Amino acid sequence: MALDAAKEVIGVAGLIEPNGTSLETLIQNLPPEIVAQLGTLIFLAKTVGIILLIYIIFLTIKSIITIRNSSRIKTIYKKVHIIDEKLNRLLQEKEEPKTIKKIEKKKKKK
């Protein structure tokens, strides 16, 4: 049984010659119903391939845009962090004179 199946596989593989004539005769001998269904399957396979190609292009463009946006966000974060540090320094400088003024007022009252 397995030997017969192997002979069939080898026989079908032997049909495909370099010039392709035996394969063409095999396709020509198929019933028209099967050939029509194969045409539909080939059309569907092409359609799926085109959709897959468009999706891959879309994902590539989306990843490039995401990388650019993330780098922009990082630079904005760094700038905000620098501004925050500067504001903290300014607030600390403003708070120090207030405490000095309060101490001076207390000394004057006494």
Main beta sheet:
none
Give the proportion of residues in helices.
Answer: over 70%
Radius of gyration: 39 Å
Q: Structural class of the secondary structure composition?
A: mainly alpha
Question: What shape does the CA trace take?
Answer: rod-shaped
Poorly predicted runs are 1-7
- Order of H and E elements: HHH
How many distinct beta strands? 0
Structure notes:
The chain has a domain at 55-109. It is 91% helix and 0% strand. It is an all-alpha fold and 110 residues long. It has helices at 2-15, 21-28, 32-109. The chain is rod-shaped.
Write a compact overview of the structure shown:
The chain has 110 residues and is mostly helical.
Key phrases:
110 residues, mainly alpha, 3 helices, 0% strand
Q: Topology of this protein?
A:
Layout: H1 2-15, H2 21-28, H3 32-109
